[in-house]
């Protein structure tokens, strides 16, 4: 990785391969239906794990594991409130933009993604 001069500051250059790898990692973090459901619910505001488990019908350990993944990816954050933690979106505007763009793309492509032999619904069964 080299250094590129931008105006009067030096910025590290990120290779295209590294940038694409990071993007693929981000999309993998969004690739689980339960994590997407958690993110959509957190778009409504802060929630405790117990609130998310009740809303999503998932086990507490499952929700906690997904929240840890999303936190490690920088998508959610938490703050203590008493003995619980309040979870929220870390970068709400950007994440909501990505989710809205995905919905627009799905509306455009129709069932193509669901029917894809490599990544569609039949491939995940």
TrEMBL record:
Keywords: DNA-binding, Transcription, Transcription regulation. PROSITE patterns: HTH_ARSR_2. SMART domains: HTH_ARSR. Residues 15-110 form the HTH arsR-type domain. Pfam families: HTH_5 (PF01022). The keyword Cytoplasm does not apply. The keyword Transcription applies. GO terms for molecular function: DNA binding; DNA-binding transcription factor activity. SUPFAM superfamilies: Winged helix' DNA-binding domain. It comes from the Bacteria. InterPro entries: ArsR-like_HTH, HTH_ArsR_DNA-bd_dom, HTH_MetalResp_TranReg, WH-like_DNA-bd_sf, WH_DNA-bd_sf. This is ArsR family transcriptional regulator. It comes from Blastococcus colisei.
């Amino acid at each position: 990785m080299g250094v590129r001069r931008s105006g009067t500051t030096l910025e590290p250059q990120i290779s295209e391969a590294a940038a694409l790898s990071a993007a693929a990692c981000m999309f993998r973090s969004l690739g689980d239906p339960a994590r997407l459901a958690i993110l959509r619910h957190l778009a409504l505001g802060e929630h405790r794990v117990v609130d998310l488990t009740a809303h999503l019908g998932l086990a507490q350990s499952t929700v906690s594991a997904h929240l840890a993944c999303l936190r490690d990816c920088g998508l959610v954050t938490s703050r203590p409130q008493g003995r619980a933690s309040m979870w929220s979106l870390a970068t709400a505007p950007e994440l909501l933009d990505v989710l809205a763009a995905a919905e627009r793309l799905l509306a455009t492509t129709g069932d193509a993604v669901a029917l894809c032999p490599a990544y569609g619904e039949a491939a995940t069964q």
